[in-house]
Amino acid sequence: MEHCIKQNNAINIYEEYFDDIDVETSEETPSAKTINVFRDPNDRKRTATHISWFPDGPRKLAIAYSVLDFQGADSDTSMESYIWDVENPNKPEFTLKPVSPLVCVEYNPKDSHQLLGGCYNGQIAFWDTRKGSQPVDMSPIEHSHRDPAYKTIWLQSKTGTECFSASSDGQVLWWDTRKMGEPTEKLYLHLTKKQDLSKSQGAMALEYEPTIPTKFMVGTEQGTIMSCNRKAKTPAEKIVALYPGHHGPVYALQRNPSFVKNFLSVGDWTARIWSEDIRESSIMWTKYHKAYLTDGCWSPIRPAVFFTTKMDGTLDIWDIIFKQNDPTLSLQVCDEPLHSLRVQEQGRLIATGSHSGTTTLLELSDSLCTLQRNEKNLVSAIFERETRREKILDSRHREMKLKERTKSSQEKEQTEEEYEEENLVKKAEEDFFYEIEQEMKSREKKEAARKEKEDMDKTDKGKASPVHEEREDSGNKEDGSKEE
Predict the structure, then answer these.
(1) 424-466, pLDDT tens digit by residue?
(2) CA angle, 312 then 151 then 200, to 5°
């Protein structure tokens, strides 16, 4: 008895063993709230074409402003772009003054004072904010792009000065900001060995993953996605694979931060998720929306979440674990087209820029920016399942094509055989009738000859010989003399 009492005193049988463990639940309804709105300070409003977050925390935003409509800008249109303090929407913290309006701008992830910009006239500009508003260096116009430089990206390098750019002129150019006199390397987005710039496909989107430094991806105006390898021996070999993605230009392209083999593309009326292993078709896609899609990106924290913007001013937030047919959350940010989108690396803040230059800063709820329990395994299983499904469908499609081809070739052979048989029968008939015709002709000739002979015989019988006639005449004379 005493032993049992001591046991009860030593162990608390009512103790809650897992009371200190926080159970992550996603019962909270996904939501987002507007924190700040940054407006283009100029009277002539321009589109917020690109956004880049300050690399050392969510304190600043660099926003590129330009008018992308052909000849839409007039002489009074400002060329300036700005760096904003997240907490001060009234006045830009810093002004970037390029020679041509900026289409894109990117912070250097290794040095938060340095920025890289792609201009509307195709030039590439480099800034150091410690050295003022003017560019430290620019690419010469004769060695730059011939169309607007739609995308610039800093490369993973030891020096932290290497970058590359893409444009709708069909060129991808590599640069070193220490020497911007000419590109260190170039690639024409032409599929043949000739590397003909006039036949190159224009680039609208560019993707680079630092963990795979030799690879990059390009989204073209024609809707094709090109997977490229920078270290290939010849320019033609640099374009490794083609993914026939969209009906129009590819406006956004990004690998999933957790699963780099899978990437997101945005164009026409859909967003598509691809696997590198399957080139014929995407493994997942959104429904066709009524409004055109303009931009998109993955959440840096949650591998199942991605964002898209549309021409009707809507920001859609998708969670492929929760549901795949419709967005988890759809926000009407403004009544005009949204053109650019960027998520801060902590995954909570998202900035989106509109047609009139208004950039809206939104804060997402915890459920959209906190990694859920077992999320990576679930997303991995979804991607693997969909990849396997597409492979099965693809092999089935190939089988059907092969069957059709075999069937058509067999039908062709059969038709040829039937045609040959018909020809043989026809020829036999022709030969047969020809022989009959010849036989009839020969018979007719023989009959004609026979008739002619008979006629001649009859004629011969009707005529008497002259000797016989003379004899008859002499006989008649003798008879007359006797009677006298």
Answers:
(1) 778 888 888 888 888 888 888 888 888 888 878 777 666 544 5
(2) 100
- CA 251 remoteness from chain centre: 10
* DSSP assignment of 403-439: HHHHHHHHHHHHHHHHHHHHHHHHHHHHHHHHHHHHH
Kindly provide the b/e burial profile for residues 395-404, where b requires at least 16 CB atoms within 10 angstroms of the residue's own CB.
Answer: eeeeeeeeee
What's the pTM value of the predicted model, to 2 decimals? 0.75
How far, CA to CA in Å, does 362 sit from each of 9, 80, 81, 83, 333?
A: 55, 24, 21, 18, 9
HSE-up of residue 249 (Cα within 13 Å, Cβ side):
16
- Model confidence at 203, pLDDT cuts 50, 70, 90, reads very high
Which residue matches tokens 């103790």?
A: 15
| Phi, psi (deg, nearest 5) at residue 306 | -140, 165
The predicted structure's pLDDT at residue 348: 92
CA distance 191 to 187: 11
How many residues in the chain? 484
Residue 325, helix vs strand vs coil: coil
Burial code of 411-428, b = ≥16 C-beta within 10 A, e = fewer? eeeeeeeeeeeeeeeeee
